[in-house]
Amino acid sequence: MPTQKVFRPFKLRAIHIALTLSLAAILIASLSIMSTGPQGPIGPKGETGAKGDQGPIGAKGATGPAGAIGPKGATGPQGPKGETGDIGLTPWGNITDYINNAITERLKDYEPPSQTNKTYNYYDVAEFWWIGNKTTDVFEMHYLIWKLSIEVITDEDPGICSYTIYDNETHGVVAELTMDVPAHSTKTKIDYVFGEPGDYYAVIETEDVALWTLYIGEID
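The structure assignment produced for this chain is given below.
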């Protein structure tokens, strides 16, 4: 005789209920996390941070155009008067009052006072030039008053130049002169001397002189 199954109703136990509730709570929590809620209000602005370090200096800009020329300044005061220069070489015809005044006192020893105010005339006698030392040719003088002019030119260094006039017969000294000349310059000296008519020669000695010229003349 076959066995008949007997149906037994399922009994829901308390543990089953608790497990179900736990799973439902986890599911609800997961759904709430996955859903994005509405954005809340913006919070207040935070405090400003500390000032950062200064950056490197930038490259120099291009030079601007030149400005306009300023107004001319006031003229300065006039400087002191310079020293009187040497007498320059002058073309001589009739001797001027300057010569008369310069030699009148000397002529008193050579001629009567009545002759001291006469008109004097100048005559060229000789001209010599050179670079270094030189003894000139003999020249002849006819009158008592001589005019000796020497012009000296220097280069980079200051120079010295001198001349001595000798009597060609006795070789005695009749006249002499020495002068210093600054560098890069031309200097002239003029001297008036007295001598007897006769033959003479000159000796010129120089140091650091580029060129010299000696002019010899006489006055009657």
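Interim note for the steering committee: Helices lie at 14-34, 97-107. The CA atoms of residues 162 and 178 lie 4 Å apart.
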